[in-house]
């Protein structure tokens, strides 16, 4: 195991530990609010009371932390799986014919039903993303900055826990023309909110930093929510993108709700 591998695993472990501590703090605050509302339910009817708004914010925070926990747990799982030896040293690999390969693939696909409930709950949604557009970080862990693009999921490999995705936007002259394919771990994929499932759409309040698709592009950048007038989860966001200054001012851009996702922990831009 190389030093960079150990460093990456330890760093993700530390982040996961911080996330779980934050979850415990949020849970304590939620329980406090529950006790308060149970003792004095009439308080919510008083003018200016913000109890329900605070509770909503706490549950939103708890949901964001839960999603981050899944992201970093998946990253750790992928890192550890990649470091596991494929067999005893010096062991020769048996040649597998076409029928054996087919049986092996069928066995791998069926293995998901025998996984633990927590692992199954992570892999099943990934398998259902085939054909969907998602946000993907195409740069490696050692890159100077993170680059996120809108890509299409071609396949999810349950055995390697990797996505095969297609960047449908042709590259420029420097990068080479044509569409590009990537094989990416679960930790580098973020599904977009679904338009036909508004109840599952996250609601980012004003001031929250997010990752969003810049208008008329397929690239995602860090932005801040500035629109206080959103009435529904399916309303567009008004955002200010980092480093988007024009004539000394920060323009406010309208971005559809299904092109805005939570800002990944440790995002580099």
TrEMBL record:
Keyword vocabulary terms for this entry: Chromatin regulator, Nucleus, Transcription, Transcription regulation
CDD domains linked to this entry: Tudor_SGF29_rpt1 (cd20393), Tudor_SGF29_rpt2 (cd20394)
Domain SGF29 C-terminal: 124-269
Comp. bias intervals (Basic and acidic residues): 94-112
Gene3D superfamilies in alphabetical order: 2.30.30.140
The keyword Nucleus appears for this protein: yes
Pfam families (UniProt xref): SGF29_Tudor
Domain of life: Eukaryota
GO cellular component: nucleus; SAGA complex
Cellular localization per UniProt: Nucleus
UniProt-annotated stretches for the region Disordered: 83-119
GO biological process: chromatin organization; response to salt stress
Full protein name: SGF29 C-terminal domain-containing protein
Species this protein is from: Tripterygium wilfordii (Thunder God vine)
């Amino acid at each position: 195991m190389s030093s960079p591998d150990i460093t990456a695993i330890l760093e993700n472990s530390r982040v996961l530990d911080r996330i779980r501590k934050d979850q415990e703090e949020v849970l304590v605050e939620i329980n406090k609010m529950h006790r308060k509302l149970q003792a004095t339910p009439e308080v919510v009817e008083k003018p200016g009371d913000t109890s329900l708004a605070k509770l909503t914010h706490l549950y939103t925070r708890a949901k964001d932390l839960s999603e981050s926990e899944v992201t970093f747990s998946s990253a750790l799982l992928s890192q550890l799986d990649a470091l596991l030896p494929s067999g005893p040293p010096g062991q020769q690999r048996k040649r597998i014919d076409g029928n054996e390969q087919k049986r092996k693939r069928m066995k791998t696909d069926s293995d998901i039903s025998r996984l633990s409930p927590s692992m199954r709950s992570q892999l099943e949604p990934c398998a259902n993303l085939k054909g969907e557009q998602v946000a993907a970080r195409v740069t490696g862990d050692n890159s100077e900055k993170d680059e996120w693009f809108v890509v299409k999921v071609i396949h999810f490999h349950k055995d390697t826990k990797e996505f095969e995705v297609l960047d449908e936007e042709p590259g420029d002259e420097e990068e080479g023309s044509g569409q590009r394919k990537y094989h990416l771990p679960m930790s580098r994929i973020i599904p977009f909110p679904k338009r036909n499932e508004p109840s599952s759409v996250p609601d980012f309040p004003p001031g929250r930093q997010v990752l969003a698709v810049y208008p008329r592009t397929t690239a995602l950048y860090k932005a801040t929510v500035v629109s206080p007038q959103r009435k529904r989860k399916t309303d567009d966001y008004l955002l200010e993108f980092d480093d988007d200054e024009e004539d000394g001012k920060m323009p406010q851009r309208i971005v559809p709700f299904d092109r805005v996702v939570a800002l990944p922990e440790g995002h580099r831009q």
